[in-house]
């Protein structure tokens, strides 16, 4: 009995009356209250045994690493699309593999920032403002130029990794130290190896 009356009610609201007047409330961002948390601040919401000064230092450094990693990730996709030449197939596939691996690192860094009580940057305009990797032109470039740009970006990230890992270790933020070394540094070092071998000046048809 109860079941049949519920069915009838659903049918009624679908065809007439109140349901048709339900509308999403748009444009709420133009009359927004204060944000839940301002960028640049750290909260102590999660009890992870780290003081505010340590969290702040790690969040600032991780946001720098995040901006540079997002830039490198997107540079890999640009080159994946635009590569030409005799090594097209190898590089096309390798660039996309590295793009996927950098995407995984991006998520790991951003979530570490949230765990520390910070606010992770996310949008392209913020990434562009924060990154220290030199701007890549919109033009299509030769493969060796692409590789040189990628290696430069990797090196900027790796130098920061060494610095940030040491500081996180000294401050007692072992989780951040692990993310920087195990996820970011190790992956970047491996990618440098694979990319570098494409610009080694070597003979192809005769041994030296
Ligand atoms: Fe693709």
If you had to describe this structure to a student in words, what would you say it looks like?
With 208 residues, the protein is mostly helical. The protein has a domain at 55-199: Up-down Bundle (Ferritin), CATH 1.20.1260.10. 63% of the residues lie in helices and 0% in strands. The chain has six helices and no strands. It has helices spanning 2-15, 52-82, 88-115, 124-130, 143-171, 174-196. Helix 2 (52-82) crosses helix 4 and helix 3 packs antiparallel against helix 6 (174-196). The chain is flat. The chain starts with a helix and ends in a 12-residue tail after the last helix. Mean pLDDT is 91; it is low at 1-14. The chain binds fe (ii) ion. Fe (ii) ion (FE2) binds at residues 80, 96.
Average pLDDT taken over every residue:
91
Distance between the termini: 90 Å
What is the succession of H and E elements? HHHHHH
Per CATH, the architecture of the domain at 55-199 is Up-down Bundle
The assigned structural class equals: mainly alpha
CATH class of the domain at 55-199: Mainly Alpha
Secondary structure: helix percent: 55-70%
The largest sheet, given as strand count, sense and whether it forms a barrel, is: none
Name the ligand types.
fe (ii) ion
Q: What is the count of helical runs?
A: 6
* Shape, per Cα inertia axes: flat
Low-pLDDT sequence parts: 1-14
State Rg. Answer: 24 Å
Question: What is the name of the CATH topology of the domain at 55-199?
Answer: Ferritin
By CATH, the superfamily of the domain at 55-199 comes out as: Ferritin, core subunit, four-helix bundle
Strand content: under 5%
The total count of strands amounts to 0
């Amino acid at each position: 009995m109860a079941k049949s009356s519920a069915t009838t009610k659903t049918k009624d609201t679908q065809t007439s009356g109140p349901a048709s007047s339900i509308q999403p409330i748009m444009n709420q961002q133009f009359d927004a209250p204060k944000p839940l948390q301002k960028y640049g601040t750290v909260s102590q919401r999660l009890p992870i045994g780290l003081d505010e000064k340590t969290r702040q230092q790690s969040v600032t450094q991780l946001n720098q690493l995040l901006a540079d990693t997002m830039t490198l990730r997107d540079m890999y996709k640009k080159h994946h699309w635009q590569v030409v030449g005799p090594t097209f197939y190898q590089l096309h596939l390798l660039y996309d593999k590295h793009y996927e691996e950098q995407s995984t690192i991006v998520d790991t860094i951003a979530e570490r920032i949230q765990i520390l009580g910070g606010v992770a940057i996310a949008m392209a305009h913020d990434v562009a403002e924060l990154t220290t990797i030199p701007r890549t032109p919109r033009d299509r470039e030769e493969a060796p130029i692409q590789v040189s740009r990628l290696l430069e970006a990797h090196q900027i990230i790796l130098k920061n990794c060494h610095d940030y890992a040491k500081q996180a270790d000294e401050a007692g933020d072992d989780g951040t130290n692990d993310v920087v070394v195990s996820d970011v540094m190790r992956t970047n070092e491996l990618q440098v190896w694979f990319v570098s071998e494409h610009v080694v000046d070597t003979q192809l048809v005769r041994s030296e």
